Amino acid sequence: MNDAPNEAGSFAFTLRKSCPHTRARLGSLRTPHGSTSTPAFMPVGTAASIKGVEPRRIRDTGSRIVLCNTYHLVLRPGDDVVRDLGGLHAFMRWDGPILTDSGGYQVFSLAELTETDRDGVTFRSHIDGRTLRLTPERAMEIQLNLGSDVMMAFDECLPAHADREETARSLEERTLPWARRCLDLHPGDGRALFAVAQGGLHEDLRRACVRALAAEPFDGLALGGLSVGESKEEMRAMVSASTAEMPAEKPRYLMGVGSPLEILDAVALGVDLFDCVLPTRNGRNGAALTFEGVLRLKNARHTRDAAVIERDCPCAACSGGFSRAYLRHLLQSREMLGATLMSIHNLTFMQRLMAGIREALETNTFESFRQRLAAKLAGETSIPATRNTST
């Protein structure tokens, strides 16, 4: 799959090649638990589990790095429990790189359960109502306890169409000073800390935020506050403005975006890393991702369909010979095997997509590859791509 060797060591990003026709980049990311080639897609294991798929099967899909969620893990089982059991790698039996978010997205997604001030955020647990306080220092402590390879600075994510005054105040009073407070706690032990750039849909604020964070010694830069209700055109404009300000030597991560068409666009704009719950969530709901578009297996036309999802796919569902008819039966019957096989297929598709992108970058054919595939996937807009907090 044109992947990097499983080389481990202190965090490092190497830019190997740039596309002559777009801003797309081919690179590699090294972490204490191994390496991955970029552009790369990270499956989301909200609660230290990609739903219904055991870790070795995740690796079989071609995935080399996964994401876990700070907010959810501090509620259950607790970061101290994970720490005492050897950290996330030992806890979930995953030996590859792990990126953890900071909990900042939950400031937005659970807004009705939060109170935000200059020092941090107070949450009311959506599970049992108990109070949880997150500050930049606590977010870093949790991620250090979890033992992640790549940590994210604590930030404030606002609704997509927040007004300019509110957005500017959020940057000045929260996201930027919180990022610097996280940087003060960077362990310097080979793990990485990424800053999260915000700015809503205000291009000048986005650019200013990226410039301010790029001037600090963060290991990478992320784009937050997108895929939260804005149009695709608005998101593309903000990604374009932001990556134009980002230093070439640092990796760029677009948080919560995983639609194949959006990934193709964002790679062309210079993004290196992606994560999203879309492949597993849509798989459980009967939508199979293919290189010809979305296949909706709950449709009655698949009742007697003996074909596999995609003939040349190496996933456990397709290579195992499981027919569309059988998968439809499992989904209609709510059998767990159906959700598992569909999730494995969709995750394998995402890694095949990323491998195809990397191969096209290697051979200087990315732009033609992107246009050709985008034409085939043009109908995928029916897939909901809004960020979610569960896999």
List the helices and strands and how they pair.
Blueprint: E1 12-18, E2 25-31, E3 34-38, E4 40-45, H1 55-60, E5 66-68, H2 70-75, H3 79-84, H4 87-92, E6 98-100, H5 104-109, E7 114-116, E8 121-124, E9 131-134, H6 136-146, E10 150-152, H7 164-183, E11 192-197, H8 203-214, E12 220-223, H9 232-243, E13 252-254, H10 260-268, E14 273-276, H11 278-284, E15 287-290, E16 293-296, H12 316-319, H13 324-332, H14 336-362, H15 366-376
Parallel strand pairs: 4-5, 4-14, 5-6, 6-10, 10-11, 11-12, 12-13, 13-14
Antiparallel strand pairs: 1-2, 2-3, 7-8, 8-9, 15-16
Radius of gyration (Å): 20 Å
> Which CATH class of the largest domain applies here?
Alpha Beta
Tell me the CATH topology of the largest domain.
TIM Barrel
- Largest sheet descriptor: 8 strands, parallel, barrel
The CATH architecture of the largest domain can be named as: Alpha-Beta Barrel
Share of helix among residues?
A: 25-40%
Provide the low-confidence segments as ranges: 381-388
Derived structural class: alpha/beta
Number of domains: 2
Order the strands across the largest sheet as they lie in space.
4-5-6-10-11-12-13-14
> What is the straight-line distance between the termini?
24 Å
User: What general form does the structure show?
Assistant: globular
Tell me the number of strands.
16
Overall pLDDT level: 94
The CATH homologous superfamily of the largest domain is termed: Queuine tRNA-ribosyltransferase-like
The amount of beta strand, in percent, is 15-25%
Number of helices: 15
How would you explain this protein's 3D organization?
The structure is a single chain. By secondary structure, the chain is an alpha/beta fold. The chain has two domains: 12-276, Alpha-Beta Barrel (TIM Barrel); 283-381, no CATH class. Helices cover 39% and strands 18% of the residues. The chain contains 15 helices and 16 strands. The chain is globular, with a radius of gyration of 20 Å.
